[in-house]
TrEMBL record:
UniProt source species: Thalassotalea euphylliae
Highest taxon above the source species: Bacteria
Protein name, entry field: Uncharacterized protein
Length: 341
């Protein structure tokens, strides 16, 4: 099995590749949304490949029309984004306007469409999405103009609007002249992060929570790394650790990767937890042990962040919540880090 070996911050002159950083506010959000959301409330689920069974050649069938695109393609996208027919993140079908006109300058324009979906978050419209037939133009022309007119109507007033013809998903911002994203539907999985960052409920209400760095595990998987691939970190900082449940602990850290950072979760059990404590300085070990005995079962090591060596494998679980997708690394062993003179 191929291995990936990272030399830590103190040896950057040798490799110049990997280091860690402790951005505590970002790590705190990462911990809350990834670990506690999944393990406590079970809001996470294994990610399914979208449209795995869908035969895209059907889009060439003249009888495959707008209503089919809406049900077969648009609705699953909205469901994966976290919208439901009821609740806080609500998809509303075919909402008509009491006065279907809008003024653009001094010109009164009639709105001839009723978009397939108005997406609301906490009873406030945030986005409209309209399905079109596979041969309809969703990048320019009357379809885009009508969607814009509906989006700016006084009864709606949303910033973002989108159209999907089964082949592509186009996303627009009413403040910008051209589209802000075009995504091929048959490549939706590869570009899901873009869709999520533009159209998800959290993107439309709390975009600051999306300033997470890309996930290390997802990055490696997309780069072609096989599940179970071993990764060695020499050393790695432990800026934050949490007890998720009786036999599950996690370390959250941003790992320097080239010129950017990747958010990383290291998961491990009670055996590895005891191993970790034995590898750390006495004061850090004591602080962690005491902190994880009581709520909120997490410890931030903001001063003198300890360092250890970590041997881990790329996990088999791929998880999703309303904020992101991620793949934890599974710790096989912690080793004491001996600083070189």
């Amino acid at each position: 099995m191929e291995r990936v070996h990272f030399i830590g911050a103190r040896s950057q002159k040798t490799v110049g590749f990997c280091s860690f950083v402790a951005n505590f506010s970002q790590l705190f959000y990462c911990l809350l949304t990834r670990r506690y959301g999944y393990r406590v409330s079970n809001n996470f689920k294994e990610v399914d490949v979208m449209f795995k069974e869908f035969d895209f050649s059907i889009l060439n069938d003249l009888e495959y029309k707008e209503d089919a695109v809406r049900e077969d393609i648009v609705k699953p996208i909205l469901t994966k984004l976290g919208y439901t027919p009821s609740g806080n993140n609500k998809m509303i079908r075919s909402r008509s306007l009491e006065h279907p006109f809008v003024y653009i300058g001094s010109q009164k324009r009639k709105i001839n469409i009723i978009p397939d979906y108005v997406l609301e978050v906490s009873n406030s419209p945030k986005l409209i999405l309209d399905a079109k037939g596979p041969n309809e133009d969703i990048l320019k022309g009357k379809n885009v103009e009508q969607a814009f007119s509906y989006a700016i109507h006084p009864d709606i007033r949303v910033r973002y609007y989108a159209l999907c013809n089964g082949r592509q998903l186009s996303i627009f911002d009413v403040t910008k002249r051209n589209h802000i994203a075009i995504i091929d539907v048959n490549e939706l999985d590869e570009n899901w992060d873009t869709v999520h960052r533009l159209l998800s409920p959290i993107a439309l209400t709390k975009p600051e929570l999306l300033n997470f760095k890309p996930d290390y595990g997802m990055y490696m998987l997309k780069a072609g790394a096989p599940r179970g691939q071993r990764h060695h970190f020499e050393p790695m900082g432990v800026p934050m650790i949490a007890k998720v449940e009786d036999n599950l602990y996690t370390i959250c850290v941003n790992i320097g990767f080239g010129e950017d950072y990747l958010a990383t979760s290291f998961d491990f059990g009670k055996k590895e937890y005891k191993q970790l404590l034995s590898c750390l300085p006495k004061e850090a070990s004591k602080e962690i042990r005491n902190g994880l005995r009581r709520q909120p079962y997490r410890v931030l090591l903001e001063e003198n962040t300890p360092e250890v060596c970590i041997d881990a494998i790329l996990g088999s679980g791929r998880y999703s919540n309303e904020n992101e997708e991620y793949i934890p690394l599974i710790v096989e062993r912690f080793r004491r880090y001996v600083k070189q003179p």
